[in-house]
Amino acid sequence: MPHLPAPVALRPPQQLTTLVENRTVYALDAFELNVFETHQTAHQVPLNMGHVVLTTMLRGKKVMHLSGQPAFEYLPGESVIVGENETMVIDFPEADEQHPTQCLAVAIPTDTIRQTVDLLNEEQPRAEAHLPWHLDTLDHAHFQNTPELTSTLERLVQLSRDTGRVKDVLAGFTIQEMLVRLMQTQARQLLFHNYQQHATSHRFAAVVQYIKQHLTEQITVEKLSELACMSKATFFRVFKRELGLTPVEFIIQERIAEAKRLLRNPLSKVADVCFRAGFNNTAYFQKLFKQYEGVTPGMYKRQLLG
Asked: Taking the model in full, what pTM does it have?
């Protein structure tokens, strides 16, 4: 289920200076927040903001063209990190007055990124010394928002509109948190999508591989911490710090994903799916599925079947 920041009010038509990428800017000491709206179809629109930029889609659909990558659809609930001085080329294939696109873009000064990365590597180093913290603007730069990142973005929007005297101080802390959330998201993508490649060189990749191979069995934190060559307490703490979720939360997410796959079979029954996905209690399965997907397993299945 996509995690979208709270909607930003669209500008009245009389306030728009252009129907393509109309820009509203909120400038603070720590970052610059931009809200872009497009109210008509357009293609091959270039945009370069100078800084490293986190963009997040709120409404509508874009097609993004970034250097060295194939074009991709960009939808609400997703974010893209764009490198310093990189030009985005954007299509708006469906935008009109009734279906405008809207996107947040947070421009982050290089010094802010460097200070945050240096602080993390000094105070909270990653589990593997050969993989220090860094913000990747090339690989793993397009991703689904997490609830934590969405919450941080919402606070950035609120701070941008705040008139309080300490808003720039709070903004500095919040932009650092956002950068940490982004790096955790990228660390997750690296491991969860390429765990087999890193299984012998990264202790958490070996943990991810074990979880995926034993998803329907009972998985204990004791076993996982043993694979990571850490004490149980250290493993739990460092896994959460580095990847932004606990080992138990990751296991649940994997089992929910497997349940969704199984529910696509028209002949599958919810009770069978529950146990085949690794859950051992149907009431608990129903509760977790609705918590993660917003609907019950039965409703999810009916939606798939139309």
From this structure: 0.84
